[in-house]
Amino acid sequence: MNTAKPAKRPVNGVLLLDKPQGISSNTALQKARRLYRAEKAGHTGVLDPLATGLLPVCFGEAAKFAQYLLDADKAYTATLKLGEATSTGDAEGEIIDTARADVSRTEFQTACTALTGKIRQVPPMFSALKHEGRPLYEYARKGIVIERKPRNIEIYSIDLIEFDAPKAVIDVRCSKGTYIRTLSEDIAKHTGTFAHLTALRRTETAGFTVAESHTLSALEPLSEAERDALLLPCDVLVRHLPAITLNATAVAMLQKGQRPQFGPEASLPYNLPENTPIRIYSPQNVFIGLAEHQKDIGRLKPLRLMNTAQTV
Fold first, then answer.
1. CB of 74 within 8 A of CB of 176?
2. Catalytic annotation on 296?
3. Which one of the listed residues 18, 48, 90, 235 is annotated catalytic?
4. What CATH number matches the domain at 241-305, 3.40.1390.20, 2.30.130.10, 1.10.3720.10, 3.90.1150.10?
5. Residue 288 near residue 255 (C-beta atoms within 8 A)
6. Is 239 helix (H, G, I), strand (E, B) or coil?
7. Rg (CA), the chain
8. Identical fold between 13-71+208-236 and 74-204
9. Which of 66, 105, 139, 281 is the most buried (most CB within 10 A)?
């Protein structure tokens, strides 16, 4: 019986994956990687096993630009249970405290309004943040509490979708680094009680929506060609950045690590902030990578470039 694993292949692009509940982001990533037989893969922003929703998977060269999704704003739909605190801030933990659950809709809405805008948030112990090289959740599972410093985040909006105490469903739009579990607990504190998440779904990140994503179960029966057709090109990860087309000579210089002259013929505003990455394209409209305009010397400095040996 032949038990050899299918040979891996170079795959470059972005898969918008709808992560199912009950598995880690890494498990979802590895399942997608096996389906595509991809040599390299990485995801952009961890979702807890409890959480579902949008998890962009970066194959091959796309991983070079994943940081721009990590830094992006996000949106979630969260379901809260009022009146109970758990050890983890979600339904996977043990109930550690209880309080009133008869919160009124007005009280809850007032709390949401109070937490909208620029706020400071203390990351939860059950998180992937590192302390001395280890994620905080490893300490938390041993009962060890590590001091965490508050971080500046921004909650753009909290919309109350459903309310029937002790259940509340909210849509949250927020900046990077926001922990919805902590936000839910803080909303409850404003009403004089506790809360934990019973469901969490990421609905948007960097302009991508969960409606554009694909489930693992939907990908499984497809042919390899059909799966490949669902991949987005690598440059979608940086589509928010300004772009220019360079001539073949300038492209070749960048690819050799050199810094071509950035002349006035480039159709790019010269009032760009210093250190702004710029998308670079060849005359054939092939994405080359990112470069930085060095205003003082009028040249382009290569930042992250596609591997010229790879094809999309």
1. yes
2. no
3. 48
4. 2.30.130.10
5. yes
6. coil
7. 23
8. yes
9. 66
Inter-residue contact 82 to 169 (CB < 8 Å) = no
Sequence-separated (6 or more) residues with CB below 8 Å from residue 198 = 79, 80, 81, 90, 91, 167
Helix (H) or strand (E) holding 113: helix 105-114
Domain-wise residue ranges, the chain = 13-71+208-236, 74-204, 241-305
Cβ neighbour number for residue 223 with a 10 Å cutoff: 8
Q: What 3-state class would DSSP assign to 192?
A: coil
pLDDT in tens, 155-199: 999 999 999 999 999 999 999 999 999 999 999 999 999 999 999
Give the CATH number of domain 13-71+208-236; options: 3.40.1160.10, 3.30.2350.10, 3.20.20.140, 1.20.5.110. 3.30.2350.10
* Amino acid (one-letter) located at 130: K
What are the φ and ψ backbone dihedral angles of 184, each rounded to 5 degrees?
-65, -40
**Lowest mean pLDDT across 219-223, 258-262, 280-284:** 258-262
- 94 close to 196: Cβ distance less than 8 angstroms: no
Rounded Cα distance between 59 and 74, Å, is 21
CATH class of 74-204: alpha beta
Residue at 221: amino acid letter: P
**pTM assigned to the model:** 0.89
What is d(CA 19, CA 50) in angstroms, rounded to the nearest whole number? 10
Question: Residue 215 carries which side chain, given as an amino acid letter?
Answer: T
